[in-house]
Amino acid sequence: MTYVEDELNSQPECWARAASEAAGHKAVLPAPGERVAIVGCGTSYFMAQAVAALREGAGEGETDAFAASEFPHGRTYDRVLALTRSGTTTEVLELLGQLKGRTPTTAITADPHTPVMTAADEIVVLDFADERSVVQTRFATTAVTLLRAHLGLHTDAVVADARTALAAELPQQLVACTQFTFLGRGWTVGLANEAGLKMREASLSWTEAYPAMEYRHGPISITTRGTATWMLGEAPEGLAQQVDATGGLWIDGGLDPLAELVRAQRLAVAVAAYRDLDPDRPRHLTRSVILAP
């Protein structure tokens, strides 16, 4: 079993623990009414997109998501929340340094022995969700679970759905597809972006991701026999039928969207195996991007 396989299989336990510990981190996580920016790089950026939409949708306050390198320094926030598995990513550390003494910052990380521990004002350590793999799975979804629980949006049914996502067989027809499109709505747009990234990282697949209502504005033109379109969350009316009419494979995400992301992670590993690739050694990638000064 690869590292990434082992780690993605442990997500139900990680989520349950994060949810149980969320109340203990309440003081350092965004408070209701705060204007918040959530930042990260790669997977963490896509998780930031999901959490920002969840928080704002829950009426907790205006919330934006940015790649750490694209933070708008002309804007004012009550708190900046950084997601960084490694605690060493250059862009995140540079941003936290620039905000020091100006804007309160909190970082969620997996490694308590890294520079982020002093770069941020407040820290949440999810070391039980740390990973050996380059391809990030459980830390990202555990951080989202912690923040969903902080917002009062997590339930035990989410963990149950994750177990279902791990137990169900993936259709061989899906594994053999040559192109994959992931769709989301609201907070699941970030999850769709992340599902596409997982497929690219682990299996070198041609993948795209869009807000579901945007899919008909051009991207559907690539859909045909041998391609798959996967909906994370509730699909817009009539979209499944339109995909079926193209000859493409429609995957209806019936589980909690975060559990659907687990299914997509499994697909990435399965497609890698089908193509005789090692998902633990993705091409041109390292666990953390550390730029030379």
Keywords summarizing the entry:
single chain; 293 residues; alpha/beta; Rossmann fold; 2 domains; four-stranded parallel sheet; globular
Topology, element by element:
Elements: H1 3-9, H2 11-21, E1 36-40, H3 43-57, E2 63-67, E3 79-84, H4 90-99, E4 105-109, H5 116-119, E5 122-125, H6 138-150, H7 156-167, H8 172-175, E6 179-184, H9 188-203, E7 206-211, E8 227-231, H10 239-246, E9 249-252, H11 257-274
Parallel strand pairs: 1-2, 1-3, 3-4, 4-5, 6-7, 6-8, 8-9
Helix pairs in contact: 2-6, 2-7, 3-6, 3-9, 7-11, 9-11
Would you give an account of this structure?
The protein has 293 residues and is of the alpha/beta class. It has two domains: 3-150, Rossmann fold, CATH 3.40.50; 156-274, Glucose-6-phosphate isomerase like protein, domain 1 (Rossmann fold), CATH 3.40.50.10490. It contains eleven helices and nine strands. It has helices spanning 3-9, 11-21, 43-57, 90-99, 116-119, 138-150, 156-167, 172-175, 188-203, 239-246, 257-274; strands at 36-40, 63-67, 79-84, 105-109, 122-125, 179-184, 206-211, 227-231, 249-252. The strands form two sheets. Strands 2-1-3-4-5 form a five-stranded parallel sheet, sandwiched between helices. Strand 4, helix 5 and strand 5 form a beta-alpha-beta unit. Helix 2 (11-21) packs antiparallel against helix 7 (156-167).
